[in-house]
Specification:
With 299 residues, this protein is of the alpha/beta class. It has two domains: 12-127 and 284-298, Aspartate/ornithine carbamoyltransferase (Rossmann fold), CATH 3.40.50.1370; 132-281, Rossmann fold (3-Layer(aba) Sandwich), CATH 3.40.50.1370. Helices cover 42% and strands 14% of the residues. The chain contains twelve helices and nine strands. A five-stranded parallel β-sheet has the order 7-6-5-8-9. Strands 2-1-3-4 form a four-stranded parallel β-sheet, with helices on both faces. The mean pLDDT is 95.
Length: 299
Amino acid sequence: MKHLLSIEELSAAEISGLIANAQSLKAERGKHASQPLAGQTWAMIFSKSSTRTRVSFEVGIRELGGSPMFLSNHDIQLGRGEPIKDTARVLGRMVHGMIIRTFAQQDIIEFANYSNLPVINALTDDEHPCQILADLLTVREKIGGWEGKKFAFVGDGFSNMTRSWMWAAKILKFKLTIASPLACQPPASFLKTLNYDGLKITTDPAEAVKDADVINTDVWLSMGQEGQKEKEAEFAGFEVNAPLLKSASPCHIVLHCLPAYRGKEISDEVLEAHADTIFQQAENRLHAQKAVLVALAKA
């Protein structure tokens, strides 16, 4: 594993290995036997704002012995139009790894191609692999794993989160049902590329949640879409609330990657009832990302 650019590019063995190592790193926090990033500086370029991603990466790099360097678009020449490949070749001669949170997936692919550095996708419009790894760690801790479990996602059917979840479902072979308005469902071209029979798409949240062990949701409008009121209106009836969850598996868990808009994609009642899981999920960003950093430091 040279980079973490997407869930799509990972194997089942790589995902399982990262989750297992994340569990170990979590148990060893504060008493790590080694410092795999000792003497290293990892740069973080964020074109999108962040709470959990920035804090978890900065803390994780430090706990592994390295030094984080945070760079926004306003701090470097990318913000003034310098080509990505030029910035990549400069930083590739100075730092030891890159963490990038941006809009276009192609930007991080190009950065990886030109920098000769390990590159981590900290979120793009296409995928959010770090979040999915944290979520899978939470599933492992809460219900023992994903094997034989039914997953449901209620919300935008073609966001970065749902794309990553669809790839994870195929790679790890668990059943996933996505409930989404017609206008927000995955296009046929993507589904053909994915080619996974264990995925089901519906417009009915109740159908998706029935007997589900894991119910996931996210904001209806992704970062940069906040002004799209017409899209938001499509999601009437897609709130994850107590009546909807009555048909879920008796031991179900609810996930939300945060920030949450209570009264929209999730009710305040449900978020508070599942707060222990949801904030454990947020904490697990730290441990899952540390596992990724360790894997890339060894590559």
